[in-house]
Specification:
The protein is α+β, with helices and mostly antiparallel strands. The protein contains 15 helices and 23 strands.
Amino acid sequence: MPANKDPAPLIGSIDEGTSSTRFSVFSMRTSRMVAVHQIPIPKICPKEGWVEQDPILILEAVKDTMEEVSRHIKDRGFTISNVKAVGITNQRETTVAWDSKTGRPLHNAIVWLDMRTTSTLEMLLEKVPNKNKNVHQKVCGLPLSPYFSALKMKWLLDNVEDVRNALHEGRLMMGTMDTWLIWNLTGGPNGGLYMTDVTNASRTMLMNLDTLSWDNNLCKFFEIPIEILPEIRSSSEIYARISQGPIAGIPIAGCVGDQQSALLGQVCLKKGQAKSTYGTGCFLLYNTGNIKAISKAGLLTTVAFQLGKKAKPVYALEGSVAVAGAAMAWLKDNIGLVDEVKNIETMAMSVHHSGDVYFVPAFSGLYAPYWQSDARGVICGITEETQRSHILRAAMEAICFQTRDILEAMHKDTGLPLSELWVDGGMIKNNLLMQLQADLCGVPVVRPHMAETTSLGAAIAAGLAEGVGALDIEHLSPGPNDVFSPKITGKERNARYSKWKMAVERSFGWDITGNDITS
């Protein structure tokens, strides 16, 4: 095929997620995806609660997807020279340790949802007055939790002999998935760049949110030598060039953690904008601008992005809903209310309201802003008139009410009004869910036509980098989208939210062995 005469630059995006790795190429003129290839990544679960992945398998998958996409774009009339830069987005907190001399991993990657560090957490809390999990919150924005990378790094140092030996011999490298990939793609043992970006570093519990550098006191607390950690860079700058393969010589110029990348992909660049990713659970990020808001409701403070070496960092509050799509799966698999999850929307639309039924899916407690580990799921308001469709609709409304709970907490922490809620993830195809979300939160819900916002965010970061020149932040705007505007009155909205709060209170205290999650 002859070369494409379209002068619009292309930007590549490596999206290394928990379940798959993909490489995409976007046109920076239209933000449309030109080509994509995806490879699933298996999990390894050697013990209950342990979740690992093979770092070499992930690296090879990244290389394979790049190889495949390079062929695809040639078939579409482009050349590799059309690709101006590559951005990387990745599963956050997942931690890898490897040998700087050989490039071989010293252990499988410990995935973000792995819970083996619970005992490590208990040991660390013994050093803290009143076992206060928020002891470092003002510095790093995070509570002590098995979720974050510092505890995974400490576990590796404490429990893996190969890691300790590498430390003593000066050949230990350790970091998040972005660090592993960038080091390997830019040369590995032969001069590969050892770095991370501010968004990924902000999820380790080791970075000071004010200085954007590793914090000596935090490193001492976790007993992690600061000298083994990678350099922290901005989210958007030319870091180094890919050293080999079909796109050798192209610069890596963007790096953003996956949830922050979705915020960027939605072009939520202004203070007061928020996005929610709907999957098994929900991840909400709320742009707080240059203000580092420390939450009083148990939300996380994180770096949203830093678009250039000299740019001021933009911060965000992050909250999560534990049970979203998982509630739909439960209705199908556990109690058989529906044969297929895809049929829930149609069945829920067969009634015009939930019949005053409220479903609180607190299967393993409630998190922010309630922090009740003794809560359990309840369905309230059932009468002899209640039908299956009412319960299905109530389950959809539960996702929306939980989202409002988080957004209300974010508003209290920041005082910033929410102008609109941008959405992404698998569940946003459900039109009824999107309308209910707008109705119950009282703000427009904006659904982009381009579903791959996480991949797009990394491409935007790379395209904005100085020296790439593919994008201008002043002219950056969202692509085509659908807007769901609230259709109910504020009085009705607040009355229904009050009933939701009543239902939530009825879920408390069911597991008498449970403790307050924050204790």
